[in-house]
């Protein structure tokens, strides 16, 4: 499996993909964090969907990572695109047959690929956290936010917790991308289906019937990043995300193991 | 250990109710070059995919290097393959593309450069795959197949898109690999492209194996013939009579007599014609192509 992992990284480290993705993640996280501080007194709100995050909340030990965790959904979308494209392109380029000739154990190929993409997500999330926290410190003065609580051991604990949750959430989004990629075998269709579902369909469904939010995979995965909300608890989000992903992974891996490779 | 690189028994692949490959039986002895010939859609790629564990047969069985094709992980480490044309990552260089596969197969990346040189891409290894010409892509595919220093090399139409010089280079490469002891199983839709380098042939048509064996057996079956034309068409009949009298079958088609017989007999015929006062405007001893011989043998002249 280590061979698959290393081989996959040879593709992932391609500058346009690697730097491009990292730049996008850093940019998106930076934007979300900056708005949080720069629009702190704006009546339109400084957080997603016009929510307000007040100075008092930002000054708590958890305030340091609010920008970072707010960006999790966007990071998730980026991960979904990367996982889906890297998986589905093996079909559209026809390279899967080469991979399977060099590694005929299909489950190992799949797992190695998954682990290497997950490690890519780790790099992405670390960078996003670093960018977000640097900006938080940098903009705190301008936004008149006290940072004393951010350098306590409580803050460190909050950071560890938030980092873990965001990472879980981002990898969950990526897993959905890989499942879609294996299912649809085309980067364009798997990415568009994933993104349209997450950004549009789910939001419409939840707008029509709010209680559906408890069951929508995208909403559940975003909830993981925030550590739970008043509507959806953290345990509920984790358990149902796990169920969705395990079922999805079982289906696609069985398909991948059995299916003829004739591209 | 058996001395067969490939052996298949009743190997079949059915899509819906049509057989892409139907009850194929053939063997490829170790250390030979075996041509795998059939027209478009005859099932060459489908067979090769089954040999490599990419698709599962709907019937029959097969062994590669002594292992069942049900367990490709047991033999693929010493098999190199290019299936249905080259396929690589367009945004990676030729070298990086080979590195990916070398890493995956655990062969190390040290001999990637020498492989690039061997296929004539020594100075283009650092260009992106998407900038390659068709012939260069094909060469990279062959280099990838050579990565494992394979015991068995399976190439699906490796000369597709190559110019005559390129085709010759590939032939030379395959010959030198065979001399080093590699067994080569190479497909083409043209027998003429493979007859010079193959010792064995498997001929496929509409999913069925029509001939599998030594190429000599096809050579032996080759029937030489002589083409004769006369300025005066009515003389052709007389020529035919002379031939038949000497025990050679003759048929007249569109103003040309086809007489079965070896080249040496042409001089004989010339003499007899002269004696009968007939001038010949053409007298050409010919050998049918292996392809023609093959279709004659199988009674299929389509
Ligand atoms: N995945 C598939 N589904 C349905 N039919 C298929 C599939 N793959 C191949 N076939 C059919 O099987 C037959 C043999 O195809 P194959 O690709 O093996 O031929 P080939 O000898 O390689 O031809 P070519 O010289 O054109 O490459 C064709 O009729 C093709 O349409
Ligand atoms: Mg083919």
> What's the overall geometry of chain A?
globular
**What is the CA-atom radius of gyration of chain A, in angstroms?**
19 Å
CATH fold type of the largest domain in chain B: Rossmann fold
**Structure ligands:** adenosine-5'-triphosphate, magnesium ion
How many domains of chain B? 2
Helical residues, percent of chain A: over 70%
Uncertain regions of chain A: pLDDT < 50 for 5+ in a row? none
| Sheet with the most strands, sense and barrel status of chain B | 6 strands, mixed
CATH class call of the largest domain in chain B: Alpha Beta
Query: What is the typical, i.e. mean, pLDDT of chain B?
Result: 90
- Sheet with most strands: strand arrangement of chain B: 6-7-8-3-9-10
Mean pLDDT across the residues of chain A is: 93
Number of helices of chain B: 10
Question: In words, what does this structure look like?
Answer:
The complex is a heterodimer of chains A (263) and B (302). Chain A is mainly α and 263 residues long. Chain A has one domain (2-258). Chain A is built from 11 helices and no strands. Chain A has helices spanning 2-12, 15-38, 55-58, 66-70, 72-92, 96-102, 106-140, 153-184, 187-208, 217-226, 234-258. In chain A, helix 2 (15-38) packs antiparallel against helix 5 and helix 8 (153-184) runs antiparallel to helix 10 (217-226). Chain B is built from 10 helices and 14 strands. Chain B has helices spanning 44-51, 94-104, 112-118, 134-146, 164-179, 191-194, 215-220, 234-245, 265-275, 290-297, and strands at residues 4-15, 18-29, 33-37, 59-64, 67-68, 79-82, 152-155, 183-188, 200-205, 208-214, 225-229, 250-253, 256-260, 282-286. In chain B, a hairpin with a 2-residue loop joins strand 1 and strand 2. In chain B, helix 3 (112-118) crosses helix 4 (134-146). Chain A binds chain B through residues 3-4, 6-7, 10-11, 14, 16-17, 89, 93-95, 97-105, 260-262, and chain B through 49, 52-56, 72-73, 76, 79, 81, 83-85, 87-92, 96, 99-101, 103-106, 144, 147. Adenosine-5'-triphosphate (ATP) binds at residues 15, 20, 38, 40-46, 189 of chain B. Adenosine-5'-triphosphate binds next to helix 1 of chain B.
């Amino acid at each position: 499996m280590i061979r698959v992992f290393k081989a996959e990284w040879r593709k992932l480290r391609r500058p346009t993909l690697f730097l491009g993705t990292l730049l996008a993640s850093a940019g998106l996280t930076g934007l979300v964090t900056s708005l949080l501080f720069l629009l702190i007194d704006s009546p339109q709100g400084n957080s997603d969907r016009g929510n307000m995050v007040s100075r008092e909340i930002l000054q708590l030990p958890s305030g340091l990572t609010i920008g970072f965790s707010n960006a999790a959904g966007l990071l998730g979308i980026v991960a979904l695109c990367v996982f889906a494209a890297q998986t589905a392109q093996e079909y559209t380029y026809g390279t899967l047959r080469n991979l399977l000739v060099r590694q005929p154990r299909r489950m190992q190929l799949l797992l190695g690929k998954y682990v290497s993409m997950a490690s890519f997500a780790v790099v992405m999330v670390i960078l996003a956290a670093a960018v977000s926290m640097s900006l938080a410190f940098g903009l705190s003065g301008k936004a008149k936010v006290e940072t004393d609580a951010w350098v306590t051991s409580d803050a460190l604990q909050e950071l560890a917790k938030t980092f873990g949750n965001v990472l879980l959430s981002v990898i969950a989004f990526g897993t959905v991308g890989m499942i879609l990629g294996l299912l649809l075998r085309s980067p364009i269709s798997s990415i568009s289906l994933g993104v349209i579902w997450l950004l549009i369909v789910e939001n419409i469904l939840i707008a029509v019937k709010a209680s559906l939010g408890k069951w929508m995979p995208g909403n559940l995965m975003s909830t993981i990043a925030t550590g739970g909300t008043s509507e959806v608890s953290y345990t509920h989000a984790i358990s149902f995300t796990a169920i969705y992903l395990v079922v999805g992974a079982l289906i696609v891996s069985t398909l991948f193991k059995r299916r003829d490779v004739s591209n | 250990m058996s001395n067969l690189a490939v052996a298949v028994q009743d190997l079949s692949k059915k899509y819906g109710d049509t057989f892409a490959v139907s009850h194929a039986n053939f063997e490829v002895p170790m250390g030979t070059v075996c041509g795998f010939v059939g027209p478009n859609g005859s099932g060459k790629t489908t067979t090769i995919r089954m040999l490599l564990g990419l698709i599962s047969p709907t019937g029959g069985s097969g062994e590669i290097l002594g292992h069942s094709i049900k367990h490709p992980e047991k033999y693929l480490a010493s098999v190199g393959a290019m299936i249905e044309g080259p396929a690589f990552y367009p945004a990676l260089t030729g070298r990086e593309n080979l590195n990916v596969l070398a890493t995956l197969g655990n062969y190390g990346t040290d001999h990637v450069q020498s492989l690039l040189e061997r296929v004539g891409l020594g100075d283009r290894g650092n260009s992106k795959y998407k900038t390659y010409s068709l012939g260069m892509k094909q060469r990279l595919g062959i280099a990838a197949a050579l990565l494992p220093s394979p015991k068995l090399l399976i190439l699906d139409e490796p000369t597709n898109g190559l110019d005559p010089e390129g085709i010759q280079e590939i032939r030379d490469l395959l010959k030198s690999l065979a001399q080093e002891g590699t067994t080569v199983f190479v497909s083409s839709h043209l027998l003429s492209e493979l007859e010079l380098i193959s010792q064995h042939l498997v001929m496929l048509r509409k999913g069925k194996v029509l001939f599998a064996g030594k190429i000599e057996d096809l050579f032996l079956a080759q029937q030489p013939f002589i083409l004769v034309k006369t300025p005066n068409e009515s003389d052709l009949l007389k020529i035919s009579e002379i031939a038949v009298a000497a025990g050679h079958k003759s048929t007249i088609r569109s103003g040309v007599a086809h007489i079965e017989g070896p080249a040496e007999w042409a001089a004989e015929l010339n003499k007899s014609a002269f004696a009968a006062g007939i001038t010949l405007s053409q007298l050409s001893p010919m050998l049918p192509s292996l392809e023609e011989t093959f279709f004659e043998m199988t009674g299929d002249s389509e």
